[in-house]
Amino acid sequence: MKIITAALVCLLLAGTWLQDVDAKSMHVSSSNCCFTLVERKMSLKGIQCYKNTSSTCSYKNRLILKMNGGLEVCVSQTKSWVRAYLKRINPCQ
Q: What percentage of the chain's residues is helix, strand, coil (to nearest 5)?
């Protein structure tokens, strides 16, 4: 009985520690970073808004475009069509 109680206490402490680690943002959500890019020019009408990637992401100069259907895609800010679109679309709220 003592072994079962000790094991349960250990599991409880481990679960609490993992929640604390996650709360301190040691894990960067993949929705805040871009790993693959859409290279082709997209329709301006299909773009709802844009947001910057997290400053902790390893790849820089990338944006996340939120499309009208809810899909989010990543693009490079260095593309001329992306720079032109940024003048015509708003940041996401």
A: 40, 20, 45
